[in-house]
Amino acid sequence: MKKIFLLMAALVLALSLAACSSKGGDGDKAGKITIWTQAAADHPEGKMFADRVKTFNEEHPDGPKVEIQNITRAGAGSGYIDKLNAAITASDMPDIFTLDGPDIAAYADSGVIGEVDPYLSDGFKKGFTQAIIDQGTVDGKLYGMGYSDSGVAIMYNEDMINALPDDIKALIPSKDQDWTWDQFVTLARKIDEFAKKSNDPAFAKYETAVSTLLTDVSNGVYETGTYFYTPILWGNGANIVDEDGLTVDGVLNSSKSVDALTKYSQLFKEPALATASESEKAFHSGKTALSVSGFWYVNELINNYPDLKFRTVRYPKMSENYDGLYTPSGSWAFVRNGQEKDEKRIKQVVEVMEWLTNDEAAKEYYHKNGSIPTRINSISEIDTNTDNLYHNEAWTVLKYQVENTNKARPVSPGYPYLSETFAKDVLLKIAQNKTTDSATIKKYVDDAAKKIDKELEKYRK
Question: pTM of the prediction?
Fold first, then answer.
C-alpha cells in the first residue's frame, strides 16, 4: 500500500470554491450514480469494483444506474487526486469516490464529504471491524466506509535462518507468539554477526540484516514510513498526535515516544543492521534476512519469487507488557459527495456504498485482490489452509492481527503534513544520520512537533 498525499494547496482552493457553488443533485445526474476510484480498470481492484457495480445494476433495475470511472494513478498517485480536486473546484464531484483512510479527516473537516451514519441500514456500521470504523470516523461521525484493510508483519528468509546456530534460531518466535522490538534487534544483530563470517550459500547475496523499506521515504513516499513505524510508538503507549488530531506537543515528543524511537534507532547503530538506501526488493532477492513487510508481500513473493522461502511472525511490540492495539492497518474507503443535499438521493447513494462494502463484497475482494476484509463476518474467508505453507503462515499472522491488535492510523485534518514530517524529519533522519542517542532523538521530535503544530494551527477553531 503506497500512500497518496493530498495536494494541499490545490485542495484548499478547491474546497473554498466548492462551498460557494455546489451543483449537487442536478437534474442531469438524477438517473445515475457515479463512482470514481483510483484503481485502474485492468487492475484486479478495478475489475472487482466493475463486477460489483454490474451486479448491483442487475439486481436493482428500477433505481438509478450506477456507473464507475477508473482513474489510473500517476506516480505517487497524484493523477487521481488532481482530477478529484479539479472536480471539487468545478463543483462537479462524483456521488461516491475513494479516499485513502488517513485523508478522510481533511475532506470531512472542509465539508467536501458527508457523513453516512444517518442513512445506513440498521446494524450495518457495527459489521465493520473497529479499526475500520475508527479510520472513517471524524468528530464522532462516520464518513468513510472501508472496503479493504491492511497489515504489516515481520518476515524472515528461511534458508538464512536454517544456516544459523541453534542458539540464534531459538530467538525466533513462532507465528503464535508476541515478541518485542528489543528481541527483534537482538536477533538481527546476531544474524548480522554470523552472516559476515559465514560461507553458507544462503548468505551469498547478503547486504544487511533487515529490510525497512525506508527507501520509499527517501523517494518521497512518506506514508510508507509513518504506516510501517508509527506502531513502534503505539506499542509503547505513545503516539504521533493526540486523540483530538491537533495536539502534537507533549505527544510526539513525549518520553515514551523518545524511548520507542531510541530502540528503533538501534537498527542503524554501527555496524548498521538496516539502511535507508537498501537495494530494490532487498528481501525478495535474498539480500536481507529479515523484513518489515506489508501484507501485499505475500502474493508478490508467492507469484514472483517462487524460490524464496519466507516465514512470517507478528509485528513486535515496544513494551512487553503493553496490551493495547498496536499493529498497522487501514486502507482505502468509499466516501460520498458532501455537497449533495437531497435526502432521497443521499439514501440511494449510501445504499450503493453499503453494496460496495457489505459482507459479501469483502469476501469477493479478498478472493479477487487479496484485500483484507473490513467486515467482521468476512474475516473467516481468509484461507489459512492451502497447500502453500508460506501463504498459510503469513495469513495466520495477519488474520490474528486484524482480529486482535490492528489500530487505525491517527485521524487528523492535517494528517498528510503530519505523516510527511514524522517520516522525513524523524524516521529517515535517524536512519540516515545513524543517530542512536536519546538526546538527539528528542531534539528531532521537538523540532518536528514545532513544525507540525504550526501547520495544524489552521485547523484549530
Answer: 0.91
